[in-house]
């Protein structure tokens, strides 16, 4: 009796494996990926999925199979094609994993095309800065606080420039104040984005601490959300009442993401109530209100702002500082450009304007762009589903429903686009290249760091302004050197974002530069 059951189950399982394999059998990829998600699971467990995707595309081609129904590409033309405004490709279940409130989707996880476009239209003016004249001022205020914070708590004295007697140098606590730049940079980024989103900073720098354990909770949640992204059936379990109550954040939580949601709820309720008495403020939330974003929707969108805006920007800031430390010729050229602009009076004090940075220190802007290229802050696969009827790309047929993801790490290291030194940090490629056609191709590819078309990042203008201004003011004033060059930073990739820590640096006042 048992034998026929075993035979039947074996045949069913064999049929399932064969059908899984056959669907995309014509697309090369790792063996395990042809019938299971074990290959993806291996790299997720290692927290190095971006490396696995890079190797897959290098070995199997611009379109590689990474799962029974999943392929990945590092081809910029394909990525633009599937994300174009009129593309028939739809967002896959992968986006569900970024949902933190089952009662309402935010703009990033919204899979309904019409609703997604509507949300973008209601928020794009606020993100662009056109209706938010206080945007740059908000960044300047937080940046001023950050510089003061460094000077008061973590500025090491410059021994070479000091006139103190040698015996006074013996106190390491006085002359040597190492600080984890990964930590304080995240405090700064969170204060900036909370000021922009809510009109007031959360106070990470003020307290020099992880307010409400937000960062700690985020680090714990990211691996969980990555599992949800790879295995959608796990995410569906979170919609069960008791599972949701156990795992998902709530506005009544005293710490973490739920606490942030509670703060957003209180501030948004207050701001929407105030609009009955006076016109909305000229800030980002005010712009959302003016363009008809519903009150309940504003609550999840402001939380998304803080989550996405802080994690991505701070990764780029950390890596910029790291690249400066590991590229002496680049740092020398950058400082020479900064000093020349300063001497010529082209940079305002105490804070340079964003327009001045763009106009007068182009090499610094090139360094920012190269840092984003070499270390994209967002590496999520961002699967899009092939439309009904299937699609043929580069003579490869993709059946309807196939999920196509992006290998961002490999995309921005393409030797076909950037040349043989694509793996080398060389900002000069952005301003020294004489071939206009080649430069245009590189710029089009680099722009994909922030997504493309209907899936482009709304926060791109804010991110560039914050990054350009922050690195300008830090390197204008300070020397920042690594304390442990043999282990400069700890970095793991979780659900497309980097969890980074232990970036120990020594910060001192630049010689010959007055305090301002």
TrEMBL record:
SUPFAM superfamilies: Cytochrome P450
Binding site for heme: 457
Listed CDD domains: CYP57A1-like (cd11060)
Keywords, comma-separated and alphabetical: Heme, Iron, Metal-binding
A Gene Ontology molecular function term of the record: iron ion binding
Keyword rRNA-binding: no
The protein's required cofactors: heme
InterPro entries: Cyt_P450, Cyt_P450_E_grp-I, Cyt_P450_sf, Cytochrome_P450_monoxygenase
Name by which UniProt lists this protein: Pisatin demethylase
């Amino acid at each position: 009796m048992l034998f026929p059951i075993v035979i039947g189950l074996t045949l069913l399982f064999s049929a399932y494996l064969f059908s899984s394999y056959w669907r995309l059998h014509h697309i090369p990829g790792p063996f395990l990926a042809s019938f299971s998600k074990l290959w993806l699971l291996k790299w997720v467990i290692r927290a190095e999925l971006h490396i696995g995707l890079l190797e897959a595309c290098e070995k199997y081609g611009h379109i590689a199979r990474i799962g029974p129904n999943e392929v990945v590409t590092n081809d910029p033309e394909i990525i633009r094609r599937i994300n174009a405004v009129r593309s028939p490709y739809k967002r896959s279940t992968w986006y569900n994993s970024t949902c933190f409130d089952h009662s309402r989707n935010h703009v990033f996880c919204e899979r309904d095309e019409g609703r997604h476009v509507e949300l973008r239209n209601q928020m794009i003016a606020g993100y662009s800065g056109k209706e938010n004249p206080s945007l740059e001022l908000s960044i300047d205020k937080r940046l001023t606080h950050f510089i003061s914070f460094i000077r008061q708590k973590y500025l090491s004295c410059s021994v070479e420039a000091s006139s103190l007697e040698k015996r006074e140098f013996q106190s390491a606590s006085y002359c040597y104040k190492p600080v984890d730049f990964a930590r304080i940079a995240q405090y700064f980024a969170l204060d900036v984005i909370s000021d922009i989103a809510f009109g007031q900073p959360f106070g990470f720098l003020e307290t020099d601490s992880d307010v409400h354990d937000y960062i700690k909770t985020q680090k714990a949640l990211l691996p969980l959300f990555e599992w949800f992204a790879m295995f959608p059936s796990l995410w569906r379990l979170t919609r069960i009442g008791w599972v949701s109550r156990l795992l998902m954040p709530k506005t009544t939580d005293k710490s973490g993401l739920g606490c942030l949601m509670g703060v957003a709820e209180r501030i948004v309720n207050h701001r929407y109530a105030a609009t009955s008495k006076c016109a909305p403020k000229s800030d980002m939330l005010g712009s959302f209100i003016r363009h008809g974003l519903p009150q309940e929707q504003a609550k999840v969108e402001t939380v998304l702002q803080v989550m996405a805006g802080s994690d991505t920007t701070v990764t780029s800031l950390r890596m910029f500082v790291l690249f400066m430390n590991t590229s002496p010729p680049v740092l020398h050229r950058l400082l020479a450009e900064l000093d020349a602009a300063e001497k010529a009076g082209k940079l305002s004090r105490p804070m340079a304007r964003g327009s001045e940075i763009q106009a007068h220190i182009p090499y610094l802007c090139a360094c920012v762009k190269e840092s984003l290229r070499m270390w994209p802050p967002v590496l999520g696969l961002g699967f899009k589903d092939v439309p009904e009827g299937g699609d043929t790309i580069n003579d490869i047929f993709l059946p309807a429903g196939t999920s196509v993801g992006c290998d961002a790490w490999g995309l921005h290291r393409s030797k076909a686009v950037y040349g043989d030194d694509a793996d080398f940090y060389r900002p000069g490629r952005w301003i020294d290249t004489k071939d206009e056609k080649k430069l245009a191709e590189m710029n089009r590819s680099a722009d994909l760091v922030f997504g493309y078309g209907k899936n482009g990042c709304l926060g791109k203008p804010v991110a560039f302004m914050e990054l350009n201004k922050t690195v300008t003011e830090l390197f204008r004033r300070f020397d920042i050197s690594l304390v442990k060059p043999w282990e400069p930073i700890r970095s793991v990739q979780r659900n497309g974002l980097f969890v980074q820590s232990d970036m120990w640096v020594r910060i001192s006042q630049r010689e010959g530069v007055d305090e301002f």
